[in-house]
Amino acid sequence: MHRSTLLLAGALALAPLAVRAEPAVKIPPPATSEAAPASGRETAVLAGGCFWGVQAVFQHVKGVSNAVSGYAGGDKKDADYERVSAHLTQHAESVQVTFDPKQISYGQILQIYFSVAHNPTELNYQGPDHGTQYRSEIFPQSEEQQKVARAYIAQLNAAHVFKKPIVTKTDTMKQAFFPAEAYHQDYATLHPYQPYIAYNDAPKVENLKALFPELWREKPVLVAEANKTN
Known about the structure:
The chain is of the alpha+beta class.
């Protein structure tokens, strides 16, 4: 369902948004860690349903300097919200997370991604949002990232952490990322009482605070602010 339809319905009544955020799952950290981080920043590109919620989660994570909503998996000419929502592209709604590997590891980024940011067992949907643009996919930015992601998925599946197998894709290496339109950036922070955000995304942020207190940051790092410092 196109999210604008849900937004209109939510403005009239809360009933159509009764499907709440996926429940968080407490999971172990990755057994396989990446090589010693180089100096500087690292990026991760993650898709897991509506980018508003995924962005909101990582904006509250210590060590993250920016989290940008956007599109990955398709062509530049198709990186447009209306086309993506109409199932006319290969894109997934994604978030590019920039982080300091000396403060938080890529493995910890993935732990949060699988635990609270989305449900990795749902194929081509998340909660009320259906379509391939809402698929679960990691776009590795290096062979090392791909190695860690694949090993972690195998670890979680072997331990039966989730009731169903993880369907997260990890095959597309170094896929280009295209930032979404300006009105999508920082959306959850700017519209906290919007019904879709209150029902589907705010609980994810609360789950982050509850399950990862050591990585929790009260004040979110917003795209608008990060752009001023870069």
